[in-house]
Amino acid sequence: MLYRLFPVLVILGLAACNTVEGAGQDISAAGTAITSEARQAQ
Length: 42
What we know:
42 residues; flat; Entericidin A/B family lipoprotein; signal; palmitate; cell membrane
């Protein structure tokens, strides 16, 4: 079920960005959040 929902979430996420720069900022923020969570888990 999740594998069907993932592409929809990706499309909605990209649609929320007005520009390529906005998409880059969103991806960067997600990467920062993942890094932070990984460090806390150690």
